[in-house]
Every structure is written in C-alpha cells, then in structure tokens.
C-alpha cells in the first residue's frame, strides 16, 4: 500500500546523493517502534496469556502446570470478584458522569467574555496536574471526621466519609471528579469555541429559546469531542488504583485493579492473576469498542 | 573509532570490577522502615568498627515490604544479603528456595537454646516441629496495650466506675474488664473514646487484632500440622472472641476503619482513646515527651486473659535470614555468629531493639529498663501466630474479606463469618493438597 505513495528515489536527486531514500527513513522510524511494541507489549501479552492457563506462582521454584480453563472458571465463579466488578462499574459511572456534568458546566461558564479568563482557566486546571497519590493523601485528611475541613465547612459533625462502607466509594468518586473535571472542561472548551458564532445568531433571529439552542446547536456540535473525553476518562476510571488504595480499605472500595494487585503481588498467584488481567482486558476492549462505534455514528451526523 | 570503543569497554570493565570488589566488603540487610531498623543500623555500625566490614540496613515502608522483598526473591536478585522477614514468610521463602537453610548453624551454635522458645518456634522453624530452621530470631515483638494512667487514676472516674460496674477501675486483666472500661470511657460528646484497635484490612493488621481476642479466648486458627480448620476456627470460643472484638469496634474514635500502628499510637498522643492496642515495638515513641504530650501519663499492660483464664497475644517481630542469591553468604554467616553473642544481644536491647535472647530477656536489668519491658517479657512466652504456609497471603485475603464486613460493616453474624472463612480456608488447603 505504501509503495503506491512512496516511490523509489530518483537516482539523480539530492536526497539520493545524501544516501538515504524515503524508504530507508521510513524504516528507520518504524522499525524501532515495532521492535519496542513487540518486546514490551506483544511478547508479555502473549506470555501472560500462556501463564493464565497454568497454576504458575512467581514466588516458588515449582514448574508451571497446565490446568486449562480452571483459572477462568474459578474467577468467574468467585462471588468476591463479581463484587469487585460491580463496585468498579458503580465507580466508573458515578465518577465519569460527575466529571462530565461538572467539567462541561464549567466550560459553558467559561465560554464567554469574562475578565481574567486565561488565569481562571489555568487555576481550574491545577487539580489534574497533581499526582494521584498526593491527591489521595490530602483528601484523606480533608475527609477526616475529627479534624477534616470538609465536615467543618459543611457542618456535618463527625460524619464518617471513608469509614462508612456505603459512603466511601462516593467519597473517592468525589475526589476523582474534583481532580479530573478540569480535563473534561478543557476538551469541552475547545469544542465550544469551535462552534460557529453565526449559528447562534441565526437561532437568535429565529427566536429560539436557550434550551432549544443548547440541545439543537451546542450539544450536537460538541458531542464528538465530549465523547473522546468520556472514552479517556472511562478507561482511566476503570483502571483506578492509587486513589482508592490510599484513601480507604473498605471491601466496598476494592476496585478490580486493587484486587488484581493483591492477587498478583501479595498472594503471588501469577497464573490466576494473568487470567484475571485478561478478563479485565477483554472488558475494557469491549467497552471502548462500543464507544468508538457510537463516536463514529455521532461524527457522521 | 576503534580506540574509542576499546576505551569505553575498558572503562566499563573497570567500573564493573571496582563495583564487585567494593561489594565483597559490604553487607546489605533489608527491613521495613521503622525505629527498630534504625536501632539495628546503630548496632551494625559497631560490627563495622570491629571487623571493618560495613553493613547497611536498607528499608522500605511496611506497606510494600512484602512485595519488594518477594519481587527481589523471584528475580533471584543479590541486592540483599540478609533480610529481616516476617514470620509468615517462612513457608513461601523456604519452599521457594529463597532462604539459606540454617539448620546446621542452629545446631552448631545452639541457637535453639539461646533464644526464647516461642521465638524459635515462630520466627525460625518451618514446617512446624520439623527441626528445620531458616532464620535467627532478631526482633521479638507481640501485641500489648497502652492506656491513659491519668484517666484511670482520676478519683471521680474511679468512683463513677465502681458505682456502675461494681469493681475497681484499673488496667484490665480480662477481656470482660477491657470491654467495660472501653464502654465507660467512650464519650463522643467529650471527644473521648474507649479504645483503639486494629482495623486495616490491606495486609495483616485486622487479622492480628482479631487473633488477640481469639487466642486469649482459648481459640486457635486451626491445626497447624493436619491443616484441619472445621470445628477449630469456627468454634464457640472463636465466635465469642470475634463478637468481643466487634463490640470493641463500637467504642473506637470516629473513622476508625483503616487503622494500624500509626493511628493506634495517635489515639494516645492525640488524647483520643483511653486504651490502645499496639505492638511493643511502637511503645518507645509513647514514652518520649517529644512525640507524646501524655508520655508521663501513659501506662502499659499485656493482652488480657479470656473467660477461661487463657492468656495469649498475637506475635509480631521477625527473624533474620540469609538470602540464597547473595554473593556474600560466608560473610553473612560470620555476621550472624557475631549477632547472636550475649553481649551483642544485650547491646541490641539497650539500643531499643527487642531482643529474643532468653538470658537477656530474663535479666532484671532488661525487665526494669522501661515501663513496658516487664509486660513484653511476660508476653513473649505466650505468643501465637498466623499460618506460615506459602499460601498464607491467600488465607489472609480470605480472612480480611470475611472479617472486615462483619466487624466494620455490621454484616452477618460471628458464626456465619467464621463458618464462611473456614470454608474458604478448606478450599485453599485442598487446592494445595494439604488436606
């Protein structure tokens, strides 16, 4: 396919005199990347697929024994694993929905002529520049029932944000929303400023109300870029580890990645955790595919 | 061009040689990041002064101590010559070939007699009663309790307590008294709470807390030789013990749902709780006025007895093992020979280390050195421990998954919890062909 666009060099050209053809340059760029991908991505991926059918444990010298689908069978029959999946789904929905609402709302507020717009935007972006571990640690302090500022400011007394099994997951999702709404805001802002002004003028002339303008003009035009933000955030939320691991150790906040980490590096069940990682991979790929299909449909409109 | 390559190669070779030459003189001991590791560094500095061989104590936070150690083992890495590893690692590390077999060393130097028997049994021997030893008991440790002497000795409180419960307020000697005192001092309106206990379920904190109740109630986790758990783990004693632990949770400060040694010491230093469970290794900080404003008013007691009079405590502490992949195994043996000498062990205790050396422990000098040494001495002869099998981490995960929702989340009953846990453990043991 490439050869049709990429032709052999004219032997009399200056490029030929330099000695490097386009083809050589192409290979020079592509081969290291391909080699890197194969060594660090494809090879471990296939190798761990092999492990997922064995009872291998990295902590012992015992050779890996082939046990077929037993790991997958055990994992999918484990009530605790299913609980981890439910928790993760709940977390992803709450935190991504929150980020979209807050982030898009902020973008709408900022998408007008206001003084010091640049400074405000930059300040709003600060949370997402912090490290996850740092955010987790200081939100843990903010939530503290004895001296935390949140309970003090909201007058909640000794409300136990992180110790309450029903509340802890939402408390972590709130932190995640605080941290990542600016990301959605940034992308939405880019989308909003690309909406042609004349559409709004035309709507105004036709006496369209603000709701009509929003749902018929703004939203459809921003949707493709918003969908990209949602895909990114969904994938990230699915993988969340540090925030939840640092903030709470409730069974109701044990996300898949935490369970996977414990299985792989505390229990050293290498084979079983490889199988688990594959189940998670298949799910993430499936969810992303659905999104991408939908995104393409949105773009066609 | 060619000369350049040769030059680089020579440089690399030189660096490699000097590095290996330097390494032969150095020993690295790996441990978790806490005060005793600093005390050990002070002790080994004296070894360097005597022999010229420098020893470095390398540390990492507790939360990733196990992960980091086993990652290094699994990679057959020689970064550490010796490791002060947790007692429950013995199975995994010995069966995995990561530890050097010290059985001959034990026989030659009579280590089994020199060290306190419980420490030899739990820190060194695997499998149980096999006569095979993998570590030299280094830091003895067990769970004890600290309490606020000024609250306990307040005449008004004493009178009110006697009125309510019919006996004198003093450091508890039974779990029933512990419960009463926790209830008595639990006053959320005054920002005072009854008791601080372990609840963190990310590794072994919560399980060790529950073990204190189970062992003192006369219960066991199972038969360590036959791997039978049915009827032992879910016995009537253990059900009562678990209920007692859960009841204590209702007298803890707010938000007490992910707590371990740091939080439990804070409960005392911040004046939050009347009593606090913690490892003896963390008590020096409570006697230091710089770290504890209530240092003068802090007292200590051993884990109280259960209803039948049995009195035990959960074991902490570690033994020191030689890593099989070390390049300095002979040097490490020499270090251990030095370490087990009586005067070195005495010095170790003086520096703040909790020696497991029987003669040092029994000496009047040691027992009177601090307000908690007597309680420590008594406790070290009645400690019990968790499973040390290679799959201990899976047993721990199951225990956390079952115990935590019952204690903190108020789900199910103690009997249901322990029945479910027994079933989980049976399944794990069957999977590894132990039953």
Task: Write up this protein.
Chain B: Keywords: Signal, Transport. Chain B: It is found in: Periplasm. Chain B: Residues 1-24 form the signal peptide. The complex is a heterodimer of chains A (301) and B (435). Chain A is mainly α and 301 residues long. Chain A has two domains: 2-51; 70-300, Orthogonal Bundle (MetI-like fold), CATH 1.10.3720. Chain A has helices spanning 2-5, 14-18, 22-51, 70-76, 79-110, 117-125, 132-143, 149-154, 168-193, 197-205, 210-239, 242-247, 256-266, 270-300. The radius of gyration of chain A is 25 Å and the shape is globular. In chain B, strands 1, 2, 3, 4, 5, 6, 7, 8 and 9 form a nine-stranded mixed sheet that branches. Chain B is built from 21 helices and nine strands. Chain B is α/β, with parallel strands linked by helices and 435 residues long. The model of chain B is unreliable at 1-5 and 7-24 (pLDDT under 50). The longest helix of chain B has 22 residues, at 2-23. The A-B interface holds A 58-61, 80, 144-146, 158, 160-163, 165, 245, 248-252, 262-263, 265-269 and B 66-67, 70-71, 73-74, 92, 95-97, 188, 191, 200-203, 253-258, 272, 390-391, 393-394, 396-397, 401, 404-405, 408-409.
Give the biggest sheet of chain A. Answer: none
CATH domain fold name of the largest domain in chain B: D-Maltodextrin-Binding Protein, domain 2
- Low-confidence spans of chain B: pLDDT under 50, at least 5 residues? 1-5, 7-24
CATH architecture of the largest domain in chain B: 3-Layer(aba) Sandwich
| Number of alpha- plus pi-helical segments of chain A | 14
| Count of helix runs of chain B | 21
Question: How many angstroms does the end-to-end distance of chain B come to?
Answer: 68 Å
Helical coverage of chain B, percent range: 40-55%
**Structural domain count of chain B:** 2
Average pLDDT for all residues of chain B? 89
Strand content of chain B: 5-15%
CATH superfamily of the largest domain in chain B: Periplasmic binding protein-like II
How large a portion of the residues of chain A is in β-strands, by DSSP E? under 5%
Number of E-type strands of chain B: 9
- Largest contact between protein chains? A-B, 27 and 34 residues
Query: What is the H/E string of chain A?
Result: HHHHHHHHHHHHHH
At CATH level 2, the architecture of the largest domain in chain A is Orthogonal Bundle
Number of strands of chain A: 0
CATH class category name of the largest domain in chain A: Mainly Alpha
Shape of chain A: globular
Distance between the termini of chain A: 30 Å
Protein name (chain A): ABC transporter permease subunit
Keywords (chain A): Cell membrane, Membrane, Transmembrane, Transmembrane helix, Transport
Organism (chain A): Oceanomicrobium pacificus
Main location (chain A): membrane
């Amino acid at each position: 396919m490439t050869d049709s666009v990429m032709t052999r060099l004219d032997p009399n050209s200056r490029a030929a005199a330099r000695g490097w053809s386009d083809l050589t340059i192409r290979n020079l760029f592509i081969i290291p990347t391909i080699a890197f991908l194969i060594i660090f991505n494809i090879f471990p991926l296939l190798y761990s697929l092999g492990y997922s059918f064995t009872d291998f444990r990295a902590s012992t010298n015992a050779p890996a024994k082939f046990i077929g689908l037993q790991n997958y069978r055990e994992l999918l029959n484990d009530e605790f694993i299913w609980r981890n999946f439910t928790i993760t789904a709940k977390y992803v929905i709450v935190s991504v929905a929150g980020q979209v609402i807050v982030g898009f709302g902020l973008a709408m507020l900022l998408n007008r002529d206001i003084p010091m717009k640049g400074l405000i935007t930059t300040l709003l972006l600060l949370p997402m520049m912090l490290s996850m571990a740092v955010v987790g640690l200081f939100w843990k302090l903010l939530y503290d029932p004895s001296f935390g500022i949140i309970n003090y400011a909201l007058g909640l007394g000794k409300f136990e944000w992180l110790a309450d099994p029903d509340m802890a997951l939402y408390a972590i999702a709130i932190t995640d929303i605080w941290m990542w709404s600016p990301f959605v805001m940034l992308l939405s802002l880019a989308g909003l400023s690309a909406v042609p002004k004349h559409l709004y003028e035309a709507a105004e002339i036709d006496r369209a109300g603000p709701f009509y303008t929003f749902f018929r003009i703004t939203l459809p035009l921003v949707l493709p870029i918003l969908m990209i933000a949602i895909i990114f955030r969904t994938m990230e939320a699915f993988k969340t580890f540090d925030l939840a691991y640092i903030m709470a150790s409730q069974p109701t906040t044990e996300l898949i990645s935490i369970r996977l980490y414990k299985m792989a590096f505390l229990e050293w069940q290498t084979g079983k955790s490889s199988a688990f990682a594959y189940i998670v991979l298949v799910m993430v790929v499936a969810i992303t595919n659905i999104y991408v299909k939908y995104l393409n449909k949105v773009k066609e409109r | 061009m060619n000369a350049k390559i040769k030059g680089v190669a020579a440089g690399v070779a030189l660096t490699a040689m000097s590095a290996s030459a330097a390494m032969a003189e150095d020993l690295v001991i790996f441990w978790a990041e806490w005060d005793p590791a600093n005390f050990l560094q002070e002790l080994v500095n004296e070894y360097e002064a005597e022999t010229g061989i420098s020893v470095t104590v390398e540390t990492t936070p507790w939360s990733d101590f196990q992960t980091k150690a086993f990652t290094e083992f699994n990679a057959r890495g020689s970064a550490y010559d010796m490791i002060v590893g947790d007692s429950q690692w013995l199975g995994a590390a010995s069966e995995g070939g990561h530890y050097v077999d010290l059985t001959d060393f034990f026989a030659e130097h009579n280590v089994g007699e020199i060290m306190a028997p419980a420490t030899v049994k739990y820190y060194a021997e695997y499998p149980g009663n096999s006569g095979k030893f993998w570590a030299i008991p280094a830091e003895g440790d067990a769970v004890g309790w600290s309490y606020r002497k000024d609250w306990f000795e307040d005449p008004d409180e004493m009178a009110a307590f006697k009125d309510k419960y019919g006996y004198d307020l003093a450091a508890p000697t039974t779990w029933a008294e512990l419960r009463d005192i926790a209830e008595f001092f639990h006053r959320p309106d005054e920002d005072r709470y009854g008791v601080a206990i372990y609840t963190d379920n990310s590794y072994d904190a919560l399980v060790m807390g529950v073990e204190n109740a189970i062992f003192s109630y006369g219960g066991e986790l199972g038969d360590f030789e036959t791997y039978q758990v049915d009827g032992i783990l879910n016995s009537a004693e253990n059900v009562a013990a678990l209920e007692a632990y859960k009841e204590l949770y209702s007298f803890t400060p707010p938000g007490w749902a992910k707590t371990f040694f740091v939080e439990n010491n804070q409960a005392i230093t911040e004046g939050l709780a009347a009593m606090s469970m913690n490892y003896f290794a963390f008590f020096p900080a409570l006697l230091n006025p710089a770290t504890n404003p209530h240092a003068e008013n802090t007292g200590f007691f051993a884990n109280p007895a259960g209803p039948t009079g049995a009195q035990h405590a959960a074991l902490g502490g570690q033994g020191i093992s030689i890593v099989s992949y070390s390049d300095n195994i002979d040097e490490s043996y020499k270090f251990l020979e030095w370490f087990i000498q009586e005067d070195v062990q005495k010095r170790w205790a003086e520096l703040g280390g909790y020696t497991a050396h029987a003669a040092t422990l029994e000496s009047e000098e040691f027992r009177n050195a601090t307000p908690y040494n007597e309680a420590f001495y008594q406790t070290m002869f009645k400690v019990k421990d968790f499973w040390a099998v290679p799959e201990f981490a899976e047993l721990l995960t199951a225990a956390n998954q079952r115990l935590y929702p019952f204690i903190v989340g108020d789900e199910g009953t103690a009997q249901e919890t322990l029945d479910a846990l027994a079933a989980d453990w049976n399944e794990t043991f069957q999977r590894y062909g132990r039953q």
